[in-house]
Structures are given as structure tokens and as C-alpha cells.
Amino acid sequence: MKLVVDGFGKSVAKRDNQIVIKENGKEVDYFRAEDVSQILLTGKGSITFDALTLLANHDIDCVSINWKGYVDYRLTPPEKKNVIVKKEQFFALADKRSGQIAKAFINAKIENQKAVLGTLAKSRSKDEFLTAQRDKLNYYLDKLDGLKKDTSDNLRSKILGFEGQASVEYWIGFQHVLDEKWGFNLRSGRGATDPVNSLLNYGYAVLQSEMWKSIYLAGLDPYCGFLHSDRYGRASLVFDLIEEFRQQIVDKTVLAIVNKNQVDVDDFEFDEGQIRIQDKARKLLIAKIMDKLNSKINFNDKKMSYEDIILYQGRLLGKYLTGEKKNYVGFSRRW
To answer: Which residues participate in Mn(2+) binding (predicted)?
Structure first.
């Protein structure tokens, strides 16, 4: 279970084997440590030393997200001591495994973009425009498939080029189903100036915390990526793995709450030249993403939650790098 600590004046404390949440010094809730997988901090408050020890003993990390949708910091237990996985991760950068992994991330991303557009078209009496946008993505999947095996360094520019072109078509389809009042003119990334992009940014930050957890438990190095190039301070592998899950978990959630009028333009305001999500909309978004992460789908012939699938993909990557698995296949769905 992911625990969200929201608002101001909150504190996280310990009592025996329990995580205790307080507000202005008064206890408001408590949870058994073994039932919590992660704590998401979205407000301002404090945490006691005893609570940090309890969290470390149960492999529970804390992730703080600010109002702009950026991860401010992450408090983690000691690193997993599986040096073999990390060594193979570094070695793979110099061989063709790295290129295969980079391709797998983007292949899964485009397949999921197709799935979202296909679902949108189906729910709108097989909307011809959305169907056409979905079908355009097959071209970029074919291009990816046609790339010769090589290192990620040698393939990166081509892979990211295909990904970028596919994403343009995807966001055109995404825009097609939004009311003009939202002012969504394709994906803008950081520094959102419209409500939909601000929801996407915040949702991706929440999802990013799940990637950190998966990578940590798999014994991988979050700063050594295959698709995203190395850059000081950038958790490249986190941004690699998240590509497989953005569409099914965040994009669909944002579309649902916007198109079902669960949020309104008045739930957003400008702050420092960017859109700020007000508390009501932000709490709703977090709750809906938590629901999505806990929801179960058919995966590998069994019912699994998205949260567990993310953990599975991290372990699969580690097993591929160490030779326990012959291939790494990214996560994707048909719908």
C-alpha cells in the first residue's frame, strides 16, 4: 500500500511497529509498517528519527513531490547489495543488450499509445480520425523493429527520433478528445501553462516514485539508463522504465477526470508563470492514480496490480542483464 501524507502541519511518527500520522500534534491515523510499501509526501510537515528507522527496516521509501510536479527528494533504505546486477548493467552499455533494452522501452511506449488511441476511438463509435492516428503509429513500430542490433549509444538518436515522431501523432489524437476550454496544444513537458499538462506532469511525478521503488528492489542503478543518456544528477533508468507506464496509468486517468468533468478550469491557477493545481483537483488526481496502481489486470496469465507489474518489470530487467532471462520485453496492453 502506498501511503499519501498530504496537507500542512502533518508529521510521521512511530509507535511500536506502526507508522503514525499526526496533524498539529494530534494522531489522525496509523498503519502497520508491513502493510506500507511507500510514503508519498505532498505537503509540508516532519518525520521523526524513530519513524525513519522503522521505514528503513521495512524497505519503505519516502518521496516528496512539489506543486509543480517535480520530485524534490527521496529518502531510502540502504542500497541493495547486489553488485552483480549493477556490474552487468554497466557492462551492458558497451554491448548490444543496451540497444535491445532501449528499443524495448520505446516499443512498449508506442504500443501503449496505440492502445489509448484505440480505446478512445472504440468508445466514440470507431472515430475515424482517432483510428487513423492510431494506425500511423505502426510505421514507427516497423522502423524500430528494422533497426540493426547495436549499442544504445549507436541507436539512441534513431530510437528517440521515432519516439518523438510517434508522440506527436499520439498527442494530436489526445488533443482531439479534449474540449477547447482546456487550452491543450500538445504536450509541453515541464513548466506547464495549461491545466491538462499540469495534471500530466503531476501524475508522472507520482508514477515516477513507483519506478524508483522497482529499480531499488531489483538492485539496479537508477542513474545508469539505456535510452536516456547519462547526465549528472539525472536518474536515467527511472525515466527509461516510466516510458512503459505513462499512457495506461496517467494519460488515461487524466483524460477520465477531465472528460467526466470531475475537475474544472477553476481548479487551476497561475503561479510563477506556471499552472498550479489546487488542492481539490490534486487530491483527486492522486486518489485516482492510486486506484489505478492498485487495480488488477491480466498479465502473464494471472491477475496482477499495476504496482506489482512495475516491480516485475524491474526484476525482469535485472534478470535479463544477469542472463537469467533471454530477453527483455516492455509492458504494453492492447487496449
So the answer is: 163, 228, 243
